[in-house]
Amino acid sequence: MMHPLLHTPYLGNGLLQQRDAIIATLKQRFKTYGYKQIQTAALEPYDLYVGNPKIGNTDDMIKVVDTSGKVLVLRPDVTIPITQQIATTQMNGGEDTRLFYIMDVFSYRFEDDQKQRTQAGVEYFNNRTPAGDAEVIALAIHILKDCGFPEFKLEIGHAGFFRALLAQANLSNEQIAPLQTYIQTKNIAEMVDYLATLPIQETVKQAMQYIPFLYGEPNEVMEKIKRHGLNGILQAELTYLVNVYNSIQAYGLTDHIVFNLGLINDMNYYSDVIFQGFVNQVGKPVVMGGRYDSLGDYFGARIPAIGFAFDVDLLLHAAKQHGLLSTLIEEEPIAIYYDVAAQKEALAIALALRERGYAVVTYSTNGDQHTASKETVHIICEADSYNLYYGKQAISFQHISELIQLLQERGS
């Protein structure tokens, strides 16, 4: 019996086909960048997550107990189990491994009632380079363009910015948590009041107060940093981020990029470049990612990597908001209507079309060869004639080669 929290939502009115079409678009684009698909188990040992400071809150995980009494969790994250798998075969970094996945994750922290989301993402295990990070970001942008979104932005930040300032502040985890929330929500007033209560240097306080304002076109953000004297504090992180941005320029995709140095990701394993993508009219990021060079250390292997995950359900919602679902839905099948005398020829035509990748449905008309077709494209086969119809327009053909040519000319 399925857990009551994990029922699959009903996707009617063609939404399931449209969702599959979005996934097909993602998979095809992943493959063009050289990624191969991977799968991990839906149920994982609870011990994989307990005691790992980079994992997050285990209270959000959905736990089950097997027949032997062992505690398992439904997969709350994809990056962690994939990293564990790679760690068993690749003990040191340097190997170029590109993997993609389409998998469900489960958590009590999801805001809807499903507690289940589908993620589609990549994990690129490679040594840290601006060019490698830029390629992954370019892939994320490429996918959003493939989906047809007219307006979207990809925010790029660096997990090291906030950490570099914290290193100078010497704060406890309890003191850091409110500060992180204020920065994420851009709650300047309360952040200023809160910083006034903390025993840290005035220059560090001013730097933290200004982080939420470091958002916008990259060159403008860099000027703001220099103007406020922050470049000295964050020089290493800034230099790397600029190098990544310069590499993205080679792809001609910088129109979609903004810097957000107040970007703080909830996943604690990110170490360097982090990013998230927003589609116009959708308030949540449809894709989130970043570099996580030290996650493999937990599994005894040094395997630096970068990756991202698209929220497929949110991507479907965004496509619906922008009226893109009609362009994402799979084409209707070609219907073949035939009378008894033409059955052999009609079914041979259907087989030939299917072998060429066409979707085909067949109907015996029992003598009523003019049965109305709901399909725009259909074929009527009679004893001595074969006609291809586009709506009410009929085009006669004699051989399958003629039919294929007609379909190709019409783009069907």
Automatic annotation (TrEMBL):
This protein's record includes keyword Transferase: yes
Subcellular location: Cytoplasm
Record's GO cellular component terms: cytoplasm
Any Pfam family hit: tRNA-synt_His
Keyword annotations of the record: Amino-acid biosynthesis, Cytoplasm, Glycosyltransferase, Histidine biosynthesis, Transferase
Residues that coordinate or bind L-histidine: 77-79, 119, 123, 269-270
Pathway assignment: Amino-acid biosynthesis; L-histidine biosynthesis; L-histidine from 5-phospho-alpha-D-ribose 1-diphosphate: step 1/9
Biological role: Required for the first step of histidine biosynthesis. May allow the feedback regulation of ATP phosphoribosyltransferase activity by histidine.
Family designation: Belongs to the class-II aminoacyl-tRNA synthetase family. HisZ subfamily.
Complex and partners: Heteromultimer composed of HisG and HisZ subunits.
Protein name: ATP phosphoribosyltransferase regulatory subunit
Species per Swiss-Prot/TrEMBL record: Virgibacillus chiguensis
